[in-house]
Automatic annotation (TrEMBL):
Domain HYR: 44-126
Entry protein name: HYR domain-containing protein
Species this protein is from: Halobacillus litoralis
Keyword GTP-binding: no
Keyword flag tRNA-binding: no
Lineage, broadest ranks: Bacteria, Bacillati, Bacillota, Bacilli, Bacillales
Alphabetical UniProt keywords: Repeat
InterPro entries with a match to the protein in the record: HYR_dom
Origin: domain of life: Bacteria
Length: 303
């Protein structure tokens, strides 16, 4: 009959989810009479697999004597056109990884059973003796001294008082150091120091997680040592002086930072020999101290 129409539910053009959806149809004529409903099914199949992205390959350092390490790695990143995706990796994060290279396989599976996978490598190595290049500018003072006793005559007052004591012309003996020479100089020193294994591990852990490594060094106060060596000889053309070889030892504190947080620290002694022209009579002693040290450092890791 003209003027009739059909009603569908869900209607044409609606979104149909993954799986089976029943559609019901009813015909209505111009007088409003409805037919018996009929049904049919629309099945939407998910044939598109998920996408998955594995972490980048990375290296884990262990101390000498270790056979491997427990490694925690980031989860893979996955997406899909439908919810319900599950992912897994083997060996799992938190597993023990032996020395050498281990391939990790990660799999993503959606609710329809579509699967995809990716792989990455974890390499476990024994930490080696990497080096740190240091440039030092060291300022030193050297004094040649001798303990002696002198007599002083004067007027003496009571401590913290203006009252003059009797016998104000009394001689008093005072122990002092007689200074024969006083030399100040500056020396530039370049050295490589070995980085401890535990520090290497901390540095690598920082870089594996995308951190930024910086390094600084400073001289430990009151830790400068000296030793007067043999082969002291007269200084040509300078009467009364000698060329004195002296070994200096400076103790440094090295600190590595990961994104401004302390990652590790260690001490490193720096030794160098300086030949200094001094008035150095027999029986005198040499005193030395560092007055200022500038310390520049450069990462110098070996492959």
């Amino acid at each position: 009959m003209p003027g009739g129409h059909a009603c569908l539910y869900p209607a044409v053009g609606k979104f149909f989810p993954i799986g089976t959806t029943e559609v019901e149809c009813v015909a209505t004529d111009a007088s409003g009479n409805e037919s018996e409903p009929c049904t049919f099914e629309i099945m939407v199949n998910d044939t598109e697999p998920p996408t998955i992205t594995c972490p980048d390959d990375f290296v884990v350092m262990v101390e000498p004597g270790e056979t491997g390490s427990v490694v925690n790695y980031p989860d893979p990143i996955f997406t899909d056109n439908c919810p319900g995706v599950m992912s897994s990796c083997s060996p799992a994060s938190g597993s023990f990884f032996p020395l050498g290279t281990t391939e990790v396989t990660c799999t993503a599976e959606d609710a329809a059973g579509n699967m995809t996978n990716c792989t990455f490598n974890i390499q476990v190595e024994v930490a080696g003796q990497n080096a740190l290049q240091l440039e030092l500018i060291i300022s030193q003072e050297i004094q040649v001294v001798h303990d002696t006793t002198i007599e002083v005559e004067g007027r003496f007052a009571q401590p913290n008082s203006a009252q003059i004591l009797q016998n104000d012309n009394e001689l008093v003996c005072i122990n002092v150091q007689k200074v024969y020479d006083w030399v100040a100089f500056c020396r530039e020193v370049q050295r490589e120091v070995s980085i401890p294994a535990e520090c290497d591990i901390a540095i690598l852990e920082c870089t594996n997680t995308g951190g930024n490594i910086t390094v600084e060094c400073e001289v430990i106060p009151n830790a400068t040592g000296i030793m007067v060596l043999e082969n002291i000889r007269p200084a040509p053309g300078i009467p009364g002086t000698s060329i004195v070889p002296i070994r200096f030892t400076v103790l440094l504190q090295i600190r590595y930072y990961c994104d401004d947080l302390l990652a590790c620290e260690f001490e490193a002694p720096i030794c160098y020999v300086e030949e200094v022209i001094l008035c150095y009579p027999e029986g005198t002693s040499i005193l030395a101290k560092g007055t200022n040290v500038q310390c520049l450092s450069h990462l110098c890791h070996s492959e």
